[in-house]
């Protein structure tokens, strides 16, 4: 964890094809230099159950289409693509230069993951800036950096997901959500977003709510 490597260093972005019986990939690339999740990343790991913090801290640019689709045993994807970092105001300004870090979250990333229940903080990336005030007291501020675009059918047919909150889908920088994002999520009863969801894409909720 925390090593300086990317896909090319470990044989390419079909890395997980080498582990067809994989069950757990928790913290697998924790704070590595991985900058994207490829299309169909876990397509050949049909038994995987947990991907908790798999890409946590990787500062991803995008997550590809169908990256985790059709994983019928997957239960926990909490904080899978998130990140947290203590930093200075100068570092933060230089890092983003006025633009969000994350570009898009692809289509059907978790489509047909019928056992998926935990997607807590799955999209969140945030930074804590701590600065000294009057030489002895500390002031802390949190900056949330979300995805600019979330694709279509991301959670389609995930019947066990019960809520999608602002923390889960990080709407503070989100410009659009694709159609049918939550279609078929028959247990989804709670959606809270601070009033922004209506201005983005209501059809993403699907007809089941």
Report on this structure.
The protein is built from two helices and ten strands. The model is unreliable at 198-203 (pLDDT under 50). The termini are far apart. Helices cover 6% and strands 20% of the residues. β5 (125-133) and β6 (137-144) form a beta hairpin. The strands form three sheets. It has a five-stranded parallel β-sheet with strand order 1-2-4-7-9, with no helix packed on it. Strands 3-5-6 form a three-stranded mixed β-sheet, with helices on one face. A two-stranded parallel ribbon has the order 8-10. It is globular. The longest helix is centred in the middle third of the chain and has 8 residues, at 89-96. By secondary structure, it is mostly beta strands.
What attributes characterize this protein structure?
five-stranded parallel β-sheet, single chain, 209 residues, mainly beta
Which descriptor suits the 3D outline? Answer: globular
Strand content: 15-25%
Helix content: under 10%
| Residue runs with pLDDT of under 50 for 5 or more positions | 198-203
**Main sheet specs:** 5 strands, parallel
| Main structural class | mainly beta
**Number of alpha- plus pi-helical segments:** 2
Order of helices and strands: EEEHEEEEEHEE
- What is the CA-atom radius of gyration, in angstroms? 17 Å
Rounded mean pLDDT score: 79
Tell me the distance between the termini: 40 Å
Strand order, sheet with most strands: 1-2-4-7-9
Please tally the β strands and state the result. 10
């Amino acid at each position: 964890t925390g090593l300086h490597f990317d896909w090319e260093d470990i044989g390419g972005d079909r890395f997980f094809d080498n582990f067809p019986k994989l069950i757990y990939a928790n913290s697998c690339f924790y704070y590595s230099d991985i900058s994207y999740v490829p299309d169909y990343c876990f397509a050949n790991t049909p038994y995987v159950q947990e991907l908790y913090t798999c890409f946590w801290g990787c500062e991803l640019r995008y997550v590809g289409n169908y990256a985790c689709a059709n994983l019928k045993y997957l239960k926990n994807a909490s904080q899978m693509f998130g990140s947290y970092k203590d930093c200075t105001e100068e570092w933060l300004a230089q890092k983003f230069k006025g633009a969000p870090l994350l570009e898009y979250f692809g289509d059907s990333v978790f489509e047909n993951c019928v056992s998926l229940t935990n997607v807590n903080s799955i999209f969140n990336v945030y930074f804590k800036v701590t600065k000294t005030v009057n030489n002895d007291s500390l002031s802390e501020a949190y900056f949330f950096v979300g995805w600019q675009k979330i694709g279509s059918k991301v959670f389609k047919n995930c019947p066990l997901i019960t809520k999608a909150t602002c923390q889960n889908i990080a709407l503070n920088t989100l410009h659009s959500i694709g159609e049918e994002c939550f279609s078929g999520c028959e247990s989804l009863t709670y959606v809270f977003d601070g009033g922004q969801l209506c201005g983005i894409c209501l059809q993403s909720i699907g007809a089941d709510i």
